[in-house]
Design brief:
214 residues, Rossmann fold, 2 domains, 36% helix, alpha/beta, single chain, 6-stranded parallel beta sheet, 7 helices
Length: 214
């Protein structure tokens, strides 16, 4: 029975500069509100949760315009960061290439990020979307547990056992969601200090995942 390695793509792909402005651009376009000086990277929520928290501070209810915001966000992201360099966690590109070429490991994505934003990130990282056998993304009403749970079901449909699924993320909230589903969770720190999470394992670098893939 093959392993299933499910990646939160936000843990391995990193914009080279702060791109918080794409949130602000979308908020301005959809809600008519100007926000500045906030660091989006400090928010550990889904897209919906993040924009809701940002606007709550301004006394604004996201309401019926949320879907419009989600539609607008990929365009704003492309305008702000779509042509710029993106960095890949050390060893991630080689591991993805290795696992996508008959390794017996089912490689998939589970991320709260939006599909069109992830597609842009992968393209800029020169990583083929075809490297992944399945993928689940954020979107309207998509909670963390739903995203991860659907990815695990995808892996099961391809022949992986639930007990063999490994979920990798740097996000404490995504780790917590995976653990709530009974999925083995691995926290990737990318060489930084580990945040306190419920992770089963903590690794510093992507290449350290190899010891779990047997």
């Amino acid at each position: 029975m093959p392993n299933a390695l499910i990646l939160d793509i936000n843990a391995i792909l990193h914009d080279a500069k702060d791109v918080s402005r794409f949130y602000f651009e979308s908020i301005r376009n959809v809600y008519g509100t100007v926000l500045e000086g906030l660091d989006i990277s400090k928010y550990d929520g889904t897209v919906q949760e993040t924009v809701s928290q940002l606007l709550a501070g301004e006394g604004i209810d996201t309401g019926e315009k949320m879907q419009l915001f989600l539609d607008e966000l990929p365009y704003a992201y492309y305008n702000v960061a779509g042509h710029d360099k993106i960095s890949v966690s050390d060893g991630a590109d080689s591991l993805i290439k290795e696992l996508s070429t008959g390794s017996g490991v089912l490689l998939g994505i589970a991320t709260p990020n939006l599909e069109r934003i992830v597609a842009n990130m992968l393209e800029r990282a020169s990583i083929s979307a075809g490297s992944f056998r399945f993928a689940q993304y954020g979107g309207m009403g998509r909670e963390r547990a739903t995203i991860i749970g659907d990815a695990v079901e995808d892996a099961e449909a391809l022949g992986a056992g639930r007990e063999s699924a490994l979920f990798v993320s740097s996000s404490p909230s995504m780790i917590s969601a995976a653990k709530g589903l009974g999925i083995t969770a691995i926290q990737l720190t990318n060489g930084a200090g580990a945040q306190k999470t419920q992770a089963d394992h903590i690794i510093k670098r992507v290449r350290d995942l190899r010891r779990f893939l047997k």
